[in-house]
Amino acid sequence: MYCSTAPGCVPTEADVNEVISATEFEDSNGTVHLSKFLPYVSQLIAEHKMEPAPPEKLLKAFRVLDQEGKGFVDKEYMTKLITEEGEPFTVEELEEMMAVAVDMATDKIAYELYLNQLLHEPPDSIYALADQLRNRSNR
User: What is the three-state SS of 38-50?
Assistant: First the structure.
């Protein structure tokens, strides 16, 4: 469901299925109508649903994986985890992450550096815009 991931939302497969289920035509095999989709997803965004995890939570997760406290995680170990555990990454998601995360000289992920690369939230993020709209309507 590219429509919900493009603006900065991070839905799980279950989230995507829920959106489809809530907005599809009856007896249509997953065909979603824009007139149902937009209000539904707008409400999810206004409520900050499917928002990326906060940096502190990501850092804590990396530190759990880095049991020796070296400040990095091996690419091979990380690849195994994110393709075999939890909700696995697709090949495309894995390649996209590794292109940014992995230090090519060491084949390791220096996770604090990686997280710093991810943390820039543009002022026009979908969630910042939703907050601005809510603040304007509360005046």
Answer: HHHHHHHHHCCCC
Positive or negative torsion for Cα 58, 60, 63, 64: negative
For the chain, the straight-line distance linking the first and the last C-alpha, in angstroms and rounded, comes to 34
Contact 108, 74 (CB under 8 A): yes
102: left (phi over 0), alpha (psi -120 to 50) or beta: beta
DSSP class of residue 24 equals B
**Residue 133 is inside which H or E element, if any?**
helix 126-137
The angle, 0 to 180 degrees and rounded to 10, between the axes of the packed helices 55-65 and 111-118 is 160
User: For the whole model, what pTM was predicted?
Assistant: 0.66
Side by side, which strands form the sheet with 108-110? 72-74, 108-110, 102-103
Question: Where are the domains positioned within the chain?
Answer: 1-51, 55-119
May I ask the CATH architecture of the domain 55-119?
A: Orthogonal Bundle (1.10)
Q: Give tens-digit pLDDT for 111-137.
A: 999 998 877 656 667 777 788 888 887
In the numeric block, which tokens belong to residue 31?
């065909």
Tokens (6 digits) for 52: 């990326």
